[in-house]
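User: Just a sanity check before I run the rest of the batch. Below are the structure tokens for the first item. I only need the designed sequence back.
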């Protein structure tokens, strides 16, 4: 396990009990344990080009969306925040100046390694890096004040289990924030983005990272992700209240939030 000046690192990721179950991998339905392995391979492949990947998928706008997301989270000094699927540190780095105690967790060690290296280069200290499975977190009950996950929930094998774990580890009064791609409701825009993402993004992935298939999966996973109202219902089913959906670009991306009360 890697450690650096950015803080400490731990490894407690498990694979969960997935025997006999199926899950979506892009447009395919595969055994759940196979999805875990294949998603892991995707992110190991793109870890070193993750920012480029996000630039390709969002035409560079992901940086603005993440800024907006962190403003909604409102991290505060003295708080304990879990940034799940946060491997390369994009969200954690934006929250670090707040003085909150931030734990960056990801199931993929290659993503965490990139984040640790980036933190060291930027001189960002004090972050805790922990390899975790979102469906089986090792943290105790009511441990964190806030839980964030950006562009990660759609890659989880069992979204309902990840949401249940988020609820479990949050303190009463704790807040949940999720930034994720969705389906835009703007007339005509959806068709334009579909054409761009399906036809051009895999080609960009091949040209930049030598890996069209991983980029193709990431685009397909957006199409398989539940629509905004359905995902909000899943958040409520996990126990969260005062849920809210904030569409961006008509819902191409959305900020979902909820409170544990």
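Assistant: Here's the designed sequence for the first item:
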């Amino acid at each position: 396990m890697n450690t650096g000046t950015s803080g400490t690192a731990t490894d407690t990721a498990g694979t969960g009990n997935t025997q006999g179950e199926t899950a979506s991998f892009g447009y395919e339905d595969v055994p759940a344990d196979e999805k875990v392995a294949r998603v892991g391979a995707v992110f190991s492949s793109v870890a070193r080009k993750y920012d480029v990947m996000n630039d390709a998928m969002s035409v560079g706008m992901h940086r603005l969306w993440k800024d907006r997301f962190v403003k909604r989270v409102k991290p505060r000094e003295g708080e304990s925040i879990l940034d799940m699927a946060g491997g390369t540190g994009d969200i954690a780095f934006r929250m670090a100046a707040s003085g909150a105690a931030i734990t960056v967790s990801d199931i993929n060690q290659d993503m965490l390694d990139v984040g640790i290296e980036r933190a060291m280069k930027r001189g960002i200290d004090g972050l805790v890096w922990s390899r975790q499975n979102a469906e089986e977190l090792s943290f105790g009950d009511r441990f964190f004040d806030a839980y964030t996950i950006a562009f990660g929930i759609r890659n989880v094998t069992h979204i309902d289990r990840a949401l249940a774990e988020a609820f479990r580890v949050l303190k009463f009064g704790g807040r949940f924030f999720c930034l994720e791609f969705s389906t835009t409701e703007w007339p005509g825009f959806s068709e334009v983005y579909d054409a761009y993402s399906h036809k051009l993004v895999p080609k960009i992935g091949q040209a930049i990272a030598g890996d069209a298939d991983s980029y193709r999966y990431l685009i397909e996973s957006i199409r398989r992700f539940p629509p905004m109202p359905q995902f909000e219902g899943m958040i409520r089913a996990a126990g969260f209240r005062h849920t809210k959906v904030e569409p961006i670009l008509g819902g191409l991306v959305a900020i979902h939030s909820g409170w544990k009360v």
